[in-house]
Design goal:
This protein has 257 residues and is of the alpha+beta class. It is 28% helix and 23% strand.
């Protein structure tokens, strides 16, 4: 797909600011990710690289024979690309997962940057957002505009998703934009997504327009889910399936606004 300068600037703005729901295309693609560590830190890495490369795509010349300027690309990303030196541990693990999953080799930085040439049609996606999946358990959803295409070129995006710290990267799924609109963003402007500190943690923390919220329980929740409903941020902490051994009762679900 071709990417105009105007489109690139709008895409770059979405790297850190959640777009209005009315701006969504008729169909979006999402890729489910399981990430290691803090989801907010993962989001910061992902969005930081996108901010740098989309600015480069909108301002640099791709016509010459020399290398594209890469000084603004975060060092951790340059370091994990082929020939980049000593990568950060999280990035090296992501690189190994990418090569194991795809059977391919690590991307060279200049080859990866060249995919963002606005005059080429090799990049079949435009960044849309990153949200917390409704399944909870730390799963994220990476959202992209693919112009309604179910099959599109996205190996460059899969590489970024893995080396930023994803443990698994699923294949894309096309859905209506209402699915994205009902989920909370991770790391971007606007509504903040729920963050569960660690698996098995008894304390659940999230943030939203009303500020930071913290709830502590006697046992870890079975699952946690956040979503938007009628302008409110709802967080459901679910203990169903946990049986009280003394009474035989199944613990109920707590939903907080």
């Amino acid at each position: 797909m071709l990417h105009s300068i105007e489109d690139l600037e709008a895409e770059r703005s979405r790297a850190f600011l959640r777009p209005e729901s009315a701006a969504a295309p008729p169909v979006l693609a999402h890729v489910e990710l399981a990430v290691d560590g803090d989801p907010a830190r993962y989001a910061s890495r992902l969005r930081g690289v996108l901010d740098a490369v989309l600015h480069l795509a909108a301002t640099a010349s791709f016509d010459g024979d020399g290398d594209l300027p890469a000084g603004t690309v975060p060092g951790w990303f340059s370091g994990v690309c082929r020939g980049g030196g000593s990568p950060e541990p999280f990035a090296a693990e992501g690189r190994d997962r990418y090569t194991e999953w795809t059977g391919g080799t690590p991307w060279a930085l200049q080859n990866w940057l060249s995919r963002f040439d606005p005059d080429l049609e090799v990049r079949g996606w435009a960044w849309w957002g990153l949200t917390a999946a409704p399944t909870g358990n730390g799963v994220l959803r990476l959202w992209a505009d693919t112009w309604g295409e179910p099959s599109f070129a996205w190996e460059d995006l899969r590489w970024l998703a893995f080396v930023a710290g994803a443990r698994t990267v699923a294949n894309p799924v096309l859905v209506k934009p209402e699915a994205w609109a009902g989920e909370l963003s991770v790391g971007g402007g606007g509504e903040s997504a729920l963050m569960v500190e660690t698996p098995g943690d008894t304390t659940v923390r999230w943030s939203g327009p009303a500020g930071n919220v913290e709830k502590t329980y006697e046992v870890p929740p079975q699952s946690v889910m956040a979503w938007r409903e009628r302008g409110e941020t709802l967080v459901q902490v679910d203990f169903r399936g946990r049986i009280d051994l003394e009474t035989g009762e199944i613990t109920d679900t707590n939903t907080w606004r």
